[in-house]
Amino acid sequence: MAGGRFIFLGPPGAGKGTQAVRLAKDLAIPHISTGEILRSAVRDGTELGTAAKGYMDRGELVPDEVVAGVVADRLTSDDCEAGYLLDGFPRTLAQARALEQRTGGNVGQVVYFELSEDEVVERLTGRRTCPSCGRNFHVKYLKPQTEGKCDTCGAALIQRSDDTEATVLERLRVYREQTGDLVGYYEERNLLTTVSAAGAPNDVYATLKTAIAKE
Ligand SMILES: [Zn+2]
């Protein structure tokens, strides 16, 4: 199996970025993350990139229409002919509708990585990061060889402010508010495939491959 169009949805901490990188490589399709293409559109100075930069410079959210335009531009690149994997887009119903318009309705298969709130909190609050080389660990699932020290460079590991319980709960609230409706939207259109994101990344990947092969 190669090629295909995919949209990945899921709460923070579900590990969808990791799964996205792997599947995109396997299927030889580009992995398109919104943050990345927004930054490159800004860097290349495209019309929409310049518009996006204006909002970002003012510290404002880039409007759905602008984000959708930047994504749609990216999807017309030659490397997207065999398909693409969208990660982090759409984030809202308005973005989903804009994408539908721009792709002539053929958005592809939507994979929803499901993870309970308790699991999200456990995963994210247990994360430890090396401030020196950026490597990530987990107090339970990915322990460093020496407690509290980076395996690569030996620096003392820290918990990022993003990963404290209060922040994680707030991120989840924002996620649910923005993205909650999307799951129902795609379900109604029979485009949704739900994959449990609980378990080790290798197991989740195996589940993912089976699930998308069935469609
Ligand atoms: Zn390190």
Can you walk me through this structure?
The strands form 2 sheets. Strands 2-3-1-4-7 form a 5-stranded parallel beta sheet, sandwiched between helices. With 215 residues, the chain is an alpha/beta fold. It has 8 helices and 7 strands, in the order βαβαααβαβαββαβα. The longest helix is centred in the last third of the chain and has 24 residues, at 165-188. Helices cover 48% and strands 14% of the residues. Zinc ion (ZN) is lined by residues 130, 132-133, 135, 150, 152-153, 155.
Give a short summary of the structure.
The chain has 215 residues and is α/β, with parallel strands linked by helices. It has eight helices and seven strands; from the N terminus they run E-H-E-H-H-H-E-H-E-H-E-E-H-E-H. Helix 2 crosses helix 4 (64-75) and helix 4 packs parallel to helix 5 (93-102).
Strand segment count: 7
What's the tally of helices? Answer: 8
**Straight-line N-to-C gap:** 12 Å
Portion of residues in beta strands equals: 5-15%
At the fourth CATH level, what is the homologous superfamily of one domain?
P-loop containing nucleotide triphosphate hydrolases
Q: Specify Rg, calculated over alpha carbons.
A: 18 Å
Helix proportion range: 40-55%
Listing every helix as H and every strand as E from the N terminus to the C terminus, the arrangement reads: EHEHHHEHEHEEHEH
3D shape: globular
What order do the helices and strands come in, and which of them pair?
Blueprint: E1 4-9, H1 16-27, E2 31-33, H2 34-44, H3 47-57, H4 64-75, E3 83-87, H5 93-102, E4 109-114, H6 117-125, E5 127-129, E6 136-138, H7 165-188, E7 192-196, H8 201-214
Parallel strand pairs: 1-3, 1-4, 2-3, 4-7
Antiparallel strand pairs: 5-6
Helix pairs in contact: 1-8, 2-3, 2-4, 3-4, 4-5, 6-7
The protein binds zinc ion.
